[in-house]
């Protein structure tokens, strides 16, 4: 382990707040090695550290939940490989590290759309969620991809609509909403894909497609 990694991990352990861990659990943020550190504190550390892919890899290897979130902030997207992305995805413990890595790191990789497609076909609950999280965040941030890409994603949303697992359902609905917001053509119920499936809004604001 490099001196920099050792220093960052020591700082994380000093910032540990067991009281926060209990509060995080109420929001579904769980893991085997949680310290209870806020995102604000993690961002401050990331700002000091700067982009450093070697540091990110050592932080991830530590197994500490917050260190892995920090890894998403300091990793260099251009240096992430498909093998590494898949390996890290297998380590997801809850919605928070899943979504955090997708939003702050994986959607910035050159193969982000490949990950969205591949992961949406996986059976592991959090990896499958990651596929739809990728679709949601790419719908917001990728200003270049054409409508055909997102029409393909809507087909995958339809296919996964019967998966009742909590994390998958949340990811599917998030993808549907964000793709629909991208432009009127992609809005659920638009003429361009009205015949494909129907959607209804459920209690709590979720959208169900069958």
What number is the mean pLDDT? 91
Shape: globular
SSE class: mainly alpha
Low-pLDDT sequence parts: 191-199, 201-205
Give the topology string: H per helix, E per strand.
Answer: HHHHHHHHHHHEE
Q: Cα-atom Rg, whole angstroms?
A: 18 Å
Main sheet strand line-up: 1-2
Can you summarize the main beta sheet?
2 strands, antiparallel
Helix content: 55-70%
Number of strands: 2
Helical element count? 11
CA(first)-CA(last) distance: 50 Å
Binned strand content:
under 5%
Structure description:
Helices cover 60% and strands 3% of the residues. Strand 1 and strand 2 form a beta hairpin. By secondary structure, the protein is an all-alpha fold. It has a two-stranded antiparallel sheet. It is built from 11 helices and 2 strands; from the N terminus they run H-H-H-H-H-H-H-H-H-H-H-E-E. The longest helix has 17 residues, at 125-141.
